[in-house]
């Protein structure tokens, strides 16, 4: 990442409670289950409860959704020629209990085992997130989220997760373990990969967006897998 890219990244704003309510409760897409494609339903939710980057989510294979020591995780890796993750940022990210309640792991495992989680996506300019990025920009405009240009974008989910965990006094090394090495460098000089159960207990499960934003209606979406 260049200094210019870092400067842009630091200018990204977080989504506040009002923004998240507009996105996940008041929008026609989430509020009335009008998403046309499963990726549009799942990708923002995964970002909200994992802090993963757009490309990390969009390139997931079905085989990347796995149980490790009894904990359901997404495996962010580059074990395929058309996947790209900095080596130091490859990591296991435990799935938040709310994502499990929605059945994301069951949704993924209902797909062909050798396929992609978001099978409709096309890779453009070496990016699986090309179309989702464009869609999300239009979507939040429809949601009525107002902010200076390019300050509230998909990457704002990552900042929102980091900010909330810091508010909850989650230690920096655990935030680093969840979000990846670049965040570790930003907040701390130290850090090591944590076991999924430890990361789930001490970090991921602390995220509480579903407790102050009404997300119960999402449990009735046609994209949810309850069994």
Please describe what this structure looks like.
The structure is a single chain. By secondary structure, this protein is mostly helical. It has one domain (15-219): hpI Integrase, Chain A (Orthogonal Bundle), CATH 1.10.443. Helix content is 46%, strand content 6%. It has 13 helices and three strands, in the order H-H-H-H-H-E-E-E-H-H-H-H-H-H-H-H. A three-stranded antiparallel sheet has the order 1-2-3. Strand 1 (65-68) and strand 2 (71-76) form a beta hairpin. It is globular, with a radius of gyration of 16 Å. The N and C termini lie far apart (42 Å).
What order do the helices and strands come in, and which of them pair?
Layout: H1 3-11, H2 17-26, H3 28-31, H4 38-50, H5 54-58, E1 65-68, E2 71-76, E3 91-94, H6 97-102, H7 104-109, H8 130-142, H9 156-167, H10 172-179, H11 181-187, H12 196-202, H13 209-212
Antiparallel strand pairs: 1-2, 2-3
């Amino acid at each position: 990442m260049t200094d210019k890219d870092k400067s842009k990244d630091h200018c990204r704003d977080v989504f506040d409670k009002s923004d998240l309510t507009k996105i996940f409760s008041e929008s026609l897409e989430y509020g009335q289950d009008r998403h046309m494609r499963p990726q549009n339903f799942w990708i923002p939710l995964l970002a909200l409860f994992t802090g993963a980057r757009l490309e990390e989510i969009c390139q997931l294979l079905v085989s990347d959704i796995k149980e490790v020591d009894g904990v359901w995780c997404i495996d962010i890796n580059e074990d395929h020629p058309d996947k790209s993750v900095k080596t130091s940022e490859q990591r296991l990210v435990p799935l938040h209990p709310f994502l499990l309640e929605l059945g994301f792991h069951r949704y993924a495992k209902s797909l062909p085992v050798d396929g992609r989680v978001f099978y409709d996506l096309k890779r453009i300019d070496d990016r699986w997130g090309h179309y989702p990025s464009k869609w999300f920009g239009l979507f939040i405009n429809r949601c009525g989220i107002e902010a200076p240009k390019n300050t509230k974008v998909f990457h704002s989910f990552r900042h929102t997760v980091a900010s909330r965990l810091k508010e909850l006094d989650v230690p920096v090394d655990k935030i680093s373990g969840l979000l990846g090495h670049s965040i570790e460098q930003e907040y701390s000089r130290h850090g090591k990969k944590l076991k999924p159960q430890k990361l789930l207990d001490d970090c991921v499960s602390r995220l509480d967006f579903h407790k102050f934003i009404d997300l119960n209606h999402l449990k009735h979406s046609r994209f949810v897998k309850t069994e």
